[in-house]
Amino acid sequence: MQFSKSTGHALHAVIHLARAERGQHVGIKELAALLGVSESYLSKIMSKLRQDGIVRAMTGASGGYELAKSANLITFLDVIQVVEGRQKMYECFNLDSQQHQLFFESEEQASQHTGHHEGNGCLVKKVMDGAEQQMVHYLQQHTIQGVLDSAAATSTK
Amino acid sequence: MQFSKSTGHALHAVIHLARAERGQHVGIKELAALLGVSESYLSKIMSKLRQDGIVRAMTGASGGYELAKSANLITFLDVIQVVEGRQKMYECFNLDSQQHQLFFESEEQASQHTGHHEGNGCLVKKVMDGAEQQMVHYLQQHTIQGVLDSAAATSTK
DNA sequence: CTATTATGGATATTGCAGGTCCATAAAGAT
DNA sequence: ATCTTTATGGACCTGCAATATCCATAATAG
Ligand code: SF4
Ligand code: SF4
Fold first, then answer.
1. pTM of full prediction above 0.85
2. Does residue A6 lie within 7 Å of nucleic acid chain C, judged by its CB?
3. Which of A30, A149, B37, B101 is the most buried (most CB within 10 A)?
């Protein structure tokens, strides 16, 4: 139950791009050296960020990366989901276990007309999904620009 | 970024124990059959739950497991942390990277007298820790008994 | 004593995060 | 045109943690 290292790298990379001049391209060399990771590995992460529309990339001499949109439009959630994916944190795997059946013995009849329930009514899943939602919501409210602003405010205090 | 299957099993096992009669012992055989997993594997999980004081175990004939405390004193967080551990979801691994140094160029001098800062002032880490805290807090507010109560209320509606 | 049941160590299996290498494509520089 | 620089994506390797099984041992009821 931990964020992958790649997620950390993605966050740090995006933050650095946000600090760079608008329109300025940052190469993988510079980025990798700054973060202290190999170029080949970081390039994979950057590639994903590009596919998901977080950054833009330019090949060729004096190419590199830049943010694809304003830093205040990029949330922590955006960056994290690029690397971590978008699957639910808790998935029901034992849907055919006796216990699951028990939990829904009453609901089975109720869902006769719908044809599917998929654990929608299960309170265990509801709690787990709720917990995830708390975190997701928080991460969605915090942007990259937000961090930069706060950092600036702190250093000039 | 997913909860392990073991976490799911632990939750389901505890819930079943909570539904059983107080003072009644449930064997690993019954429990494993109910959840649809092997006895040997589930016993490992149960053993952890015992070590952390969630359940009590009795060896010998007519032995088995029972809750070590009332179900309304057992939170989701308690059970989850038994399996998942208690490490932070985001850990700073690149503390010696150039970027980290940059982030703390001003703070370095400020922390001369303390001797350590360990990223306390970093806003990236602060956001990530904040997100985790949101989830942890939510999981701490939801007990096993809470799910049972809601389930009972739903079935009699 | 015997049957039953949990425990913990050892060990296999598997999936995946972490990481490298290289052939290719795109774009600027000459 | 050609060369150099730079990103891209496929193939691949590696190590470790989650998953899973087996067994020898201990504890307990009858
Ligand atoms: S969490 Fe609920 S829906 Fe999912 S398997 Fe368990 S009982 Fe079924
Ligand atoms: S998250 Fe902050 S404290 Fe952690 S390594 Fe990055 S800059 Fe340093």
1. yes
2. yes
3. B37
